[in-house]
Amino acid sequence: MALFGRVFRIVLIVGLVLGVLALVVYSMQLDEIVRKQFEGRRWALPARVFARPLEVFNGQQLYSDHLEQELKLLNYVAVEKSPTETGQYLRKGDNFEIVTRGFQFAEDVEPPRSIKVALARGKVTSLELANNQAPLPVMRIEPVLIGNFYPSQNEDRVLVRIKDVSPLLVNGLLAVEDKKFYEHQGVNPMAIARAMVTNLKAGQTVQGGSTITQQLVKNFYLTNERSWERKLKEALMALLLELHYNKQEILEAYLNEIYLGQDGSRAIHGFGLAAQFYFNRPVRELKPDQIALLVGLAKGAAYYDPRRFPERALERRNLVLTVMEQEGVLTAAEANESRSRPLGVSEHRPSGASPFPAYLDLVRQQLQRDYREEDLRSEGLLIFTAMDPIVQLTAEQIVIKRVQQLERANRIPKNKLSGSMIISTVQGGEVIALVGGLDVRYPGYNHALIAQRQIGSLVKPAIYLAAFEAKGKYGSLG
Questions:
Q1: Are the beta carbons of 132 and 124 closer than 8 angstroms?
Q2: For the residues of 10-60, what is the DSSP string, one character each?
Q3: Could you give the 3-state DSSP secondary structure of residue 341?
Q4: CA gap 289, 286 in Å, rounded
Q5: Between vectors from CA 276 to CA 275 and to CA 277, what angle results, nearest 5°?
Q6: Which residues are paired to 99 by β-bridges?
């Protein structure tokens, strides 16, 4: 018996040592995975294509209706009194008060401004800051997003930095998802134990004990497989993540990674894109009730989809508002006022498809000469074009109207003719509008780029101009 006891202890010690060594080796492998992906390029980001920014200055040719049309394309909200928040405007005849959002351009930043613009006879007659009425020489309104080139896995996100996000969103998220976020080291044993007891009593999974760090690990590194092996791996990776990175870095990654909806084949990731997808506004402009809805979607974006299941989503949003009130994130008055609001989700979901597919064909064609397709779809490029949205919309209307007139005048069956148009600047030849066919909102055969036709007499002005510029070389032009 004594011999058996000694052998058993030796085997046990050897087993423990080997187990510890295996755990150390496994942890080192996981640690390399955690650091490599978190420190590298974390996401494949779509390239975003923008129209030209609208420059405003005294004497500029600009009509009031065109200015308002551009603001609507940017999802600015018309208000009935002086605007106080970014993304709002007030129009009184030919006079505008606008609180712009600002924009990060390639080389500089256009800050948010509160401005007053006066127009008359199609020209800007006055441009000044609204707060102190100081004259403003020139300013730019942010450009309209005209298209995207998505990664192969069709994930879409708009990256946000934690300093640019409302504290209400951060505090509300922590109140609902992880109250002890700043106290634990990646795993909260008390929350796990509490969830296990609750689930055992219910006979099914009704409560989770995962921290925000664990949720980030699951979404960032792992799959949705339900197994003890996956949960243990998730916990270990969460501990490793917290070992290397601070809380702000982890929280910022979570804000950009969390899955919050689906638009056909396009997956909506992160609060930055979700704010646009559900409310047509940047995340920093969200109201408390809108923040609560997005926080509620983190539990199950498909189950609480506000467009498909509005009653279910409303109940979840109000529960989140109640938790935010209980945790001191909102006052009782703010929570009650927010609960009384409707969901307020935009009726039509913003499509990931370009509203100007013909022009986007031109952009893609030119970019493919200088960039690899992989870079276009994964490096998060910001591409600025010369497209003028107002000229583009006007050109589309002209082509459609003219083709319809030709069909009626020549008794041609409807939809038998098509048409196209390209408009460029005189000075530099930049293409500011392109119409590829009559079905202007859908990609298809792009007559402007693909169709090859005899240009006929259209070439004569260019030939004659070249001849006039070379005086005496071609003899008499009479």
A1: no
A2: HHHHHHHHHHHHHHHHHHHHHHHHHHHHHHS--S-BPEEEE---EEEETT-
A3: coil
A4: 8
A5: 95
A6: 88, 114
Q: Residue 89 is inside which H or E element, if any?
A: strand 88-92
For 131, other C-beta atoms within 10 Å of its C-beta total: 10
DSSP state of 297: H
From 227, 265, 340, 457, the catalytic residue: 457
Q: Return the H-helix or E-strand segment holding 399.
A: helix 389-409
Decide if 110 contacts 98 (C-beta within 8 A): no
Instruction: Quick: pLDDT tens for 62-119.
Output: 999 999 999 999 999 999 999 998 999 999 999 999 999 988 887 888 899 999 999 9
Rounded alpha-carbon distances, angstroms, from residue 5 to 8, 13, 15: 5, 12, 15
The amino acid at 9: R
- C-alpha 290/C-alpha 275 separation (Å) is 8
**Phi-psi bin for 154: left (phi > 0), alpha (psi -120 to 50), beta?**
left
Q: What is the CA radius of gyration of the chain?
A: 29
Percentage above 70 pLDDT, the chain: 86
Q: Are 416 and 430 in contact (CB under 8 A)?
A: no
In sequence order, which residues have a C-beta less than 8 Å from that of residue 191 and are 6 or more positions away?
Answer: 180, 209, 210, 211
User: Is 225 among the catalytic positions?
Assistant: no
Strand stretches in 310-441, DSSP E? 382-384, 421-424, 431-435
Residue 114: which residues within 8 A CB-CB, separation 6 or more?
83, 97, 98, 99, 100, 129, 130, 131
Which residue matches tokens 């539990």?
299
Tell me if residue 177 is catalytic: yes
Q: Which amino acid is at 153?
A: Q
Residue appearing with tokens 């948010």: 112
The catalytic position among 177, 234, 257, 285 is 177
> Six-digit token pair at 251?
């929280």
Scored b (16 or more CB within 10 A) or e, 463-478 reads eeeeeeeeeeeeeeee
Task: Please give the model's pTM, rounded to 2 decimal places.
Answer: 0.78
Single-letter amino acid, residue 39? E
> 242: buried, middle or exposed (CB in 10 Å: 19+, 13-18, 0-12)?
middle
Calculate the average pLDDT of the chain.
Answer: 85
The structure tokens listed for 112 are: 């948010």
Residue type, 475: G
